[in-house]
Amino acid sequence: MRTSSTRDQATGGSPDESPAPVARLVGAVKTYGSGPGAVRALNGVDVAFGAGAFTAVMGPSGSGKSTLLHCGVGLDRLTEGTALIGGTDLGLLRDRELTLLRRTRVGFVFQAFNLIPSLSARENITLPLDLAGRAPDQGFFDELIGALGLSSRLAHRPSELSGGQQQRVAIARALLGRPDIVFADEPTGNLDSRAGAEVLAFLRHAARERGQSIVMVTHDPVAAGYADRAVFLSDGNLVADLAAPTRESVLAELQQVAS
Ligand code: ADP
Ligand code: MG
Questions:
Q1: Structurally, how many domains does the chain consist of?
Q2: Residue 225's domain spans which residues?
Q3: For position 103, what pLDDT does the model report?
Q4: Distance from residue 65's CA to the centre of ligand 2 (Å)
Q5: Are the C-beta atoms of residues 42 and 67 closer than 8 Å to each other?
Q6: 136 pLDDT band (50/70/90 cuts)?
Q7: pLDDT score at 190
Q8: C-alpha pair distances (Å), 140 with each of 115, 134, 175, 194
């Protein structure tokens, strides 16, 4: 694997300078189906995501990006290997325990927003905490809503919001519970470039100013340029790890991955 960093990010760096990773995959294999039609979507991936880091996951369509996110967060189970959130091995949890962990310790932003149509923006944002029986921190709620420009939109239903506003509601929902880590699958994939830039700037701000750990799948080199690190998948393998990515360095890496 190519790496541009002197620090060994895949293992979280030397013990005295980096805290334990917030999320980690070890020897991750995911096979869909069986027999001759089986697809090996992850082919033995080792990757660790450090506290407060904003990481972009890149690679061609079908390279395993969504699978990595879904297995990393316990929405789906690995065929072999280990997925950890903090010190918790997701493979050892029952389905009910996994659901509880997802509600309390991780946030997820889907490309298609996945908001509940019949609920207002405010109700959508607080839903995970409501389900977990936790009261939202009102100060943090106000701060998030202000920073995301949603203050005048809270009573509206998703159908009354623009795509950019819906995605910002989904991001507020993922961040409100101050999860250990937020996973976002192409969060700007359905947005125009201006709305996309606002969402990316907010995610970068959350990582830098609040230490929110974020892992974001994207195929857009401009989007990856907002992150602190970019990792590259190809055919289910992690093939490169780039520190401080820029649009240019990401484009160069993508060309190598494709060749
Ligand atoms: P990416 O997000 O990088 O486009 P995915 O993780 O969605 O890639 O898919 C990786 C591979 O696994 C692809 O070949 C895809 O067709 C296959 N795959 C993904 N999900 C399923 C599924 N539920 N059943 C069968 N094959 C799947
Ligand atoms: Mg995908």
A1: 1
A2: 2-258
A3: 86
A4: 5
A5: yes
A6: very high
A7: 83
A8: 21, 14, 10, 25
